[in-house]
Amino acid sequence: MIFRQITRKNYFFSVRFFSSILKDRYGFVVPSIPIQQSRSSPNSPEVNGNKKRKKNKEPYRPPSSLDMTGKKIIHSNLPFDFRFSYTESNPNIKPIGLREPKYSPFGPGRVDRGWTGVCAPAVDPVLKSVEGDVSNDAEKKMEEWRRRRKMIIGELLTPAERAFLIEKCQKNRTKRQVNLGRDGLTHNMLNDIHNNWKHAEAVRIKCLGVPTVDMKNVCNQLEEKTGGLIIHRHGGQIILFRGRHYNPKKRPVIPLMLWKPHEPIYPRLIRTVIDGLTIEETKEMRRRGLTVPALTKLAKNGYHASLVPMVRDAFLTDELVRIDCKGLPTTDYKKIGVKLRELVPCILVTFQKEQIVVWRGKDYISNSHINSEEKSFSLVSKSDQSTEKRLTDISTHNSGCYIHDQSSDNDSIISDTEDLEMDPRIEEHVNTPQCSSEECP
């Protein structure tokens, strides 16, 4: 009613009149002293300071000064040497130096194995050099480990069981996954895989980055170090089966590494003068290698399984091959260069300007890798009907699920028909005779 009586002409006076009515009606009086908060806010610094006070950081003490009395030493029956990475380290290549003292990454006095700066050997190297029987004992332990692995895996899975486990491990069914990145299969990852096997019979492993250049080595190390069995592989996705008779309560003891050890010092990858060339020829080859068209561009955390056959096919027509690695860390493309040197094989020319330049060498034989063009072509094209029929017959002959690779030890990589299409190196063993019933697990 008050608003209806107000006109535009006396708008200013009506506002004053309206405010006076509100003041008289409610009788609001402004306090002279500000109202004090009865409760202090929980986010105030006084309350937070009383509840939680920042503890002073303890000064650094070397591991040798720590008191380990009364703590149990962890003993593991695993027959292999403990390394930070099993796929990205080669025990056959010896380092020329160390970047830090020989502090064990397992902690001082926590494990009954000494640390050599590179690994924690299962057999003491001092005893191994003095007593000759120690090496025989190590081989017996490894054979016992493989025999137990066959017993735990049990009978081969039927096609229905295998399809059920594969479907159960897909992304739309479970979020459980173990990521395998640039460090490859690390020691602590073994513990993660066994933790996943507590709740499921199979675990999904996603492989990306540098280790995917040699997926065969990744599969070999996964089966050998975990004791499981690969029942499916599509690209960088691996499904690892724990075995029919796996008991989580009897899992092996795996001590955890508390920090990542520094990598030792290895010989230089790039030599000043390439073998068989003069200084001028080496400089000219490096200059020319940076100007040739790039074979491919590698993506960060990508899947590089087709890189080796691509380089082999490029060597059929070109002497130098350049791979663009812009955006990748320096350690990543240097590791890729080492893998190419061993798998292709080839000679490393330079890593300048984030490029990998490799040379096939003077004594390169084009027929050294049979059907390399067909293998690399199978990575990007679909197989014809005859190939699919042949692969189906082979998979049916092996209970529909396994094909054994004779290049590894008695326990081999196991792949399905999709694996044969994705990895051309497995096709070499398709027509080879299968293992007998006594040799198969």
From TrEMBL:
PROSITE patterns, per the entry: CRM
GO biological process: mRNA processing; RNA splicing
Alphabetized SUPFAM superfamilies for the sequence: YhbY-like
Annotated InterPro entries: CAF1P_plant (IPR044599), RNA-binding_CRM (IPR001890), YhbY-like_sf (IPR035920)
Gene Ontology molecular-function annotations: RNA binding
Biased composition (Polar residues): 431-441
The keyword Transit peptide is assigned to this record: yes
Chain intervals with Low complexity compositional bias: 36-45, 403-415
Chain segments carrying region Disordered: 36-68, 402-441
GO cellular component term, pick one: ribonucleoprotein complex
Protein keywords: mRNA processing, mRNA splicing, Repeat, Ribonucleoprotein, RNA-binding, Transit peptide
Domain of life of the organism encoding this protein: Eukaryota
Domain CRM: 155-253, 275-371
UniProt name for this protein: CRM domain-containing protein
